[in-house]
Design brief:
alpha+beta; seven-stranded antiparallel sheet; two-stranded antiparallel sheet
């Protein structure tokens, strides 16, 4: 699908306040929309991926660090795309997912 991109799906929700606290000093979260679904393109160094699951419990993916990543929420499912060439490639990949 995308030469090395990793796509992860989990039941849960994204919260902007959580992302901005976990980005680190050089990180940036840019709001994006994919087929009406809210999301964030995260750049500027490694970040910790934190999300709230369907039961309201927060998880941090065992403190796994990632580079540039697109995260979006569709109908209670978080879709996380990392390893895309750039934001346009990540948005293209997200647009292919159903």
């Amino acid at each position: 699908l995308a030469g090395g991109a990793v796509i992860t799906e989990v039941k849960g929700a994204i919260e902007k306040g959580i992302f901005t606290k976990m980005l680190g000093p050089n990180g940036q979260a840019t709001e994006v929309t994919v087929d009406g679904a809210p999301g964030y393109w995260i750049t500027g160094g490694q970040h910790i991926f934190v999300y709230r699951d369907a039961d309201g419990v927060y998880h941090n993916e065992d403190m796994r660090l990632a580079g540039d990543t697109l995260i979006l929420e569709r109908s209670g499912v978080l879709v996380r795309i990392e390893g895309a060439k750039d934001e346009a490639d990540a948005l293209r990949i997200a647009g292919l997912l159903r």
